[in-house]
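request received
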Amino acid sequence: MVKWTEEERETIRSVWEKVDIDEVGSQIIARTLIVYPWTERYFGRFGDIFTTTAILNNAKVAAHGKVVLNALDLAVKNMDDIKGTYSALSRLHYDKLKVDPDNFKLMADCITISIACKLKAALSPPVHMIWHKFLYAVVEALNSVF
Amino acid sequence: MVEWTEQERTIITTIFSNLDYEDVGPKALARCLIVYPWTQRYFASFGNLYNAEAIKTNPNIAAHGTKVLHGLDRAVKNLDNIKATYAELSVLHSEKLHVDPDNFKLLADCLTIVIAAKLGSAFTPETQAAFQKFLAVVVSALGRQYH
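response:
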């Protein structure tokens, strides 16, 4: 189980409360699809995701980013048992969605970049380090059933 | 050989032409040492790296960060031949500095975050894609001479 200090909990919450799920959510899948185009294979039912313009204008892509961030919110609220909180999600990604787990890290990186664009200097190196630890725990938890 | 579109070339050269190397270089390297603390082992002779404050104010780290950015500048100016441009640097990192090549990606990731924080919403997904493609080529070229 991951151990968190009070400072780390505070830092993660303080980053998270600055994240507008609607605003940041709409970016994260778009960034993942544009920067790592092979991830398009997982979103076959989203319509046109084959050009940058199509991806940026695709309502399903934007909506799904919010679904992902709402799930991340669950992890923020259950930091002491992210693995348990995500066990159904992990099974979903393994059994049904058949996602290559290497891709979790890519989306996590895109989430951090989206947050960096928004928070700018507020994502200082010490804050970034703690946020990175949190996302690493989230990715591990998603990987747990694999 | 890596192919670059005109748009990618423009994105990459524009980012670098608007950069203060003496600001971004130190920030990227300091961030790497703080977020991925094992990388500090390569800078043992640089003095006090005991905490984030010490790292951020360490003049040797700052100077080295600037040096790294100037090194990247060479890649920007030789986009069509990064591999050859970095052949000597690759040998240096492998044979003299003994850097685990996995760490190149970590520094590249930290530089991406610094640029993202600087550009804000101007760091669009397309900009991110071009910039990360550039850094991936740089990282690959640096790892090339390892054996």
